[in-house]
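Below is our example:

___
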Amino acid sequence: MDYTRQEMMAIATGREIKDGEMAIFGVGLSMLAGYFAKRNHAPNIRDLTEGGVYGAFPVGGLPWGIECNRISSNAVSFTNAIDALGFLVASGRCDVGIIGAAQVDKYGNVNTTGLWADPANSRYLPPKVRLNGSGGANEIACGCKRFIIMATHEKRRFVEKVDYISSPGYLTGGNARDRYNFPGGGPSVIITSLGILRPDPVTREFILTEYFPFSSVEEIKENTGWNLKVSPEVRVTAEPTPEELENLRAVDVTGALRKKS
C-alpha cells in the first residue's frame, strides 16, 4: 500500500465534492480533502474557510489555520467568520461542509464539547474531559445543504449516543431533524479511517456501504460502539489512483498529515 489511511480518508472525502459547489472547510484533514478536490476534479468549487478566506489554494504546504498565510496569500477575496458562517452558511447558500468529530453516533450527531462520566447529567456537571468545542461546525451542521463527517474509526469515538450534541445530525433519527427547521439537510456521509457510512433514507441510521482496501466489514463492526448495520450492496472503495495521490500530495507538500496509522 503506497498510501496511508489518512490519505485514503482524505481522497474518499474529496471525491464527495462536486465541481461548482460552494464548499466550506475547517482545518486539518478537512482542508486537505477540500483542496485536494479543487486540484483534482473540482477546479470550479467556490471554496471558503470558517474565517472567510475565499477562493484560495495552499502555498507551501497545508494551512495551519483558517486564516493562515498559506491560503490567504493567494485568496480571491477576504471577509470574516460572521459573513462566512452567519451569512453564507446560515442562510443555506453553502452546498457542502466538512467537519470532524471526537464522538459520533448512529444518527450522525457530533460531539466536540466534552466527555462526561454521566452524560445524563451533563447539564449540571463539568465534563471529565473538555474538548475544543464546535468552532464553526455547529453552523455547518445546521446550515449547509449537506455536510460530511470525518473521524478516525475507533469504538470510543463511534458511540451509541454522544455525550453531548455539539453539531446536530439526524438527532433521534427518522424525521426528528425536520422539526427544527434547520436550513441544511444534515450529514450525507461519514468517512472514517476504515470505510464509509451513509444514512438509511427512512430511519436516518448510518449503515456501512463501503470499506477501504486495507480494512474489512468485521474490523469496522468491531470498532463501532453500536450494532452497525451493513448494506447488502457493501463494496470495497476504489483505491487512490496515481493522479489522485499526486494531487493530494501537492496540497500536503510537507507531509504534515501523511500519517501511517
